[in-house]
Amino acid sequence: MPSKALRSRYTTEMPSLLRAVLALPLRALAWLGGQGTRAVAAIAFIAVAVPPLGALLRPYVTEAIFLLLCISFMRVDLVALYGHLRRPALVAAATAWTTIGVPLIFALAAHATGLSTSSPGLALALMLQGMASPMMAAPALAALMGLDAALVLVTLVTSTALVPFTASLYASLFLGGMLSISPTTLGLKLLGILAASLVTATIIRRLVGSDAIQRHKRPIDGLNIIILLVFASAVMGDVATEFLADPLFTIAVALLAFAVYFTLLAATTLIFRRAGTERAFALGLMVSQRNLGLMLAATAGALPATTWLYFALTQFPIHFAPYMLMPIARRLTARTNGSSEAKKAEVHSFVSQERREGTTI
User: Fold this and answer.
1) Within a domain: residue 353?
2) Distance between CA 82 and CA 232 in Å, rounded?
3) Per-residue tens of pLDDT for the chain, all 361 residues
4) Do the domain assignments include residue 260?
5) Is residue 243 part of a domain?
6) What is the span of the domain harbouring residue 291?
7) Any stretches that span the bilayer, and where are they (predicted)?
8) How many structural domains comprise the chain?
9) CATH code at 225?
10) Residue 300: left (phi > 0), alpha (psi -120 to 50), or beta?
11) Coil, strand, or helix at residue 180?
12) Burial of 87 (0-12, 13-18, 19+ CB in 10 A)
């Protein structure tokens, strides 16, 4: 029989040991979440370098997209959301651009260049890219880069709410028989995925509380990165094989993916530059990051091989661009912050002068 002292020591030390063991995964996730854009860029390398991982994880694309949506909806800052909704002009313009303007331009470009006839799989990929809503991770990336994440978030929410209807409309107008499902089914599936993830996220917020979610921001970031790895591996697992089979075509498709990404980024930044360069750049980042995973989930991955290849190669600019664009974002935010500080100093100087002169303000 263990002595009373030994039993006492066991009962006091065991809970602390258990807490320490349980804290290890949280610490690991927090460390991973702290790696920021470096981890996001590394995901693309890992996904391509380990093809068996992609074969293993491909059946779980829909689940990964659902979890990413849940995490994004769970972290919605309702105060910031309501603040931007009170000034809806910029949000409405950005929503119209990303849900109506972008897919229309993609459709016209695909038909004008004859891509719909010469390469239907690539034309389908571009159309689905244009029809997709922005990535749910866009606000987190914007925050990571010091940009206006609240503006990105509210525009993301409004455009995502519309995408089941706009995607169904554009699919019926431009895709014809390219898809294995009807435009109505596509819209209903998109609506179902978004509604289910929103309900799940709302339940989690009610049970856990927004304060707890904010306190565990870094571990949640780490979990987000792991789920992104699952998605990227599932989509990019065959890139190395495709490159060895046809390197010139694979490189050409990759260059097209980068060109589309940076064209959307530059065009959006120019269109919204009057709202301020920093805000315009944040919107450009959001618009260029299209949620192709949502389209994969809605179509259950029943897409041509060329479409899959393009979707896989779009992950390179999506994962590398935030790391590459970080210096630009820092300069823009520094300029914005410097302008704000200068205005504050000017107001402070004016107030001090008025007080010295005895003027009532």
Assistant:
1) no
2) 33
3) 555 554 455 455 545 554 555 566 777 888 777 776 677 778 888 888 888 888 888 888 788 888 888 887 787 766 666 766 676 888 899 999 999 999 999 988 888 888 888 888 898 899 999 998 888 777 767 776 777 777 887 888 888 888 888 888 888 888 876 777 777 888 888 888 888 888 898 898 888 888 888 888 888 888 888 888 888 888 887 888 888 888 999 999 999 999 999 999 999 999 999 888 888 888 998 999 898 888 887 877 678 888 888 988 998 888 787 777 777 777 877 766 655 444 344 334 433 443 444 433 3
4) yes
5) yes
6) 45-347
7) 65-82, 89-110, 122-144, 151-174, 186-208, 220-237, 249-272, 292-313
8) 1
9) 1.20.1530.20
10) left
11) coil
12) exposed
Tokens of 210: 């927004």
Q: Cβ(123)–Cβ(178) under 8 Å?
A: yes
Q: Does 15 map to a domain?
A: no
C-alpha to C-alpha distances, 141 to 90, 213, 232, 343, nearest whole angstrom: 20, 17, 16, 28
